[in-house]
Amino acid sequence: MKVLYQTLVKRELWEHRWLWLAPVVAAGLMILVALVGVVAWSNSGMNFRLPPGANVGDGVGMPGASAMWLGVIGLTAQLWLISGVVVSFYLLDCLYAERKDRSILFWKSLPVSDFQTVISKFSVGMLVPVVVTFVLVTAVYPVMHAINSILAPSLTQAIGGWNTADWLRAEGRVLACMLVTTLWYAPLCAWYMLASVISSRSPYFMAGLPILVLGILESFVFHTGNVWRFVVWHMTPVFHPWEGLQRPSLWIGLAVTAGMLYIVIRLRRYRDDT
Amino acid sequence: MSPIIEARGLSKSYRGGKQAVAGVDFTVGPGRIVGLIGRNGAGKTSVIKSLLGLTPYEGHLRVLGRNPTTERDVVMREVSFIADVAVLPKWLTVRNALEYVQGVHPAFNRERAEQFLASTDVKLTHKVRQLSKGMVTQLHLALVLAIRARLLVLDEPTLGLDLLVRRRFYDTLLNDYMDEERTILVTTHQVEEIEHLLTDVLFIEQGRIVLDTPTEQIGDRYAQLIVKADQLSAARALRPFSERAVLGRTVLFYENAPREELAALGELGTPTIADLFVARMQKEAA
Predict the structure, then answer these.
(1) How many angstroms separate the CA atoms of B181 and B151, rounded?
(2) Rounded CA gap, A238 and A216, in Å?
(3) Residues of chain A neighbouring B104 (CB-CB closer than 8 A)
(4) Contacts of B88 in chain A (CB under 8 A)
(5) Sequence-separated (6 or more) residues with CB below 8 Å from residue B123
(6) Which positions of chain A have pLDDT values less than 50?
(7) pLDDT, tens digit, for every residue of A64-79?
(8) Which residue from B89, B93, B103 is facing A101, i.e. has the nearest CB?
(9) How far is CA B34 from the centre of its chain?
(10) How many beta-carbon contacts under 8 Å exist across A and B?
(11) What residue of A is the nearest CA neighbor of B101?
């Protein structure tokens, strides 16, 4: 069972290498940009000093946040966004491409149930962004910090040096945020898979069209924008994990997710268009 | 021994009311190589998709004693299937293909697959996209040969392949796959190429089985007579079900006809499966 699941996950990562490659490349570019930025800073002769007792976050609307805290969160946000984009494409593609190239006949010639297939794809879509983002942030932030402290020691000194406790707190916080946000996004993932399994032409169209039509209808008929607001609300990450877990809509969303996955499994099982 | 496939009143209708399979009965025993032969749209693929639990059907159907729809996951542990060469995904590398099947199939013998591949030009590092059609077939064969399946279903497996590859495909199946326990069900319209290896034939036309016979009994039941023009009317009097003119002579096909009388009129023989198929189809059309 365990080997089966591992194999199914590996198969997804073989086909969709961008799932992890895109964030890795992005992280590499970020290190490069940081390197160039720091060199430029130290060559410019600019100087910077925080007033005593102040934090870097004070100036950017996050009072009390240290540079370290902001750094980890900022890095996470960027990598998470990139992961989110590639994983959206992955989920929209994952049950459509196999029908388009008829490889579904090969996958279905092996003793893997539709339940196992759909769950493996769903779990890849849910877990890869968290795992990849967290691993990269954990690896990349210390590297960036090291670049700063070697090439621009005065800057590092000015905004605050390495603080392991602070770093661990930041790491814990972003991990919790990502985990709860992942649960919050579960219905979105299932919705993409539903579009992917239903679609005979374009899963992108299939995922967007119903929402577009509903939203336009609503604004014409009722002159309100609840559909748009709902969608934006459900795509907004959770910044306060504990508060997020207490939202009833998160749990309703998970129930809806289970229902949608059930339909996805049924459709992959009985749909016959190859 | 219990049958490998048992179909009673198997029907399949598509939306819009088109009936692809119209209540067919047939049984396939272990150790047989059965050719399911029919024209395009005759219902071959619908029968096969029903057997593999890929599509809903009506009627009674058992594969290895199980219901292929509700027990699909169990059935597929002992059934292998090759649709045609185009279904292996292009991005897959040969090594990954082996690793995948090893990971998901309890009865897969990776060493055996690698041994088979070693005798071909297929390298482990190749991607399917880089392989020729013939090489993809060899890869797919390697995967299937290394699975101890009791039933192998082949749906037009050699479509679009050149003669050499087709020949090698079937030779490999016979030499490396077949034994008394294993069963093959194959559809093709290149009947000539496989008729020497079939043990049974099923002719399907417009969703119905029009002939179901072991190949060794074809000679008992059917006869082919080649006559010159002067004997034609006498030969026709013995009620052939089909005939065709070839180079000034006429070939007539008979079912359960008196052999001595036929032999007196011309050259008597057993029709090939391909000839029989064409003759039967003409009869159906008439």
Answers:
(1) 9
(2) 27
(3) 4, 7-8, 110-112
(4) 103, 106
(5) B94
(6) none
(7) 667 788 888 889 999 9
(8) B89
(9) 6
(10) 76
(11) A110
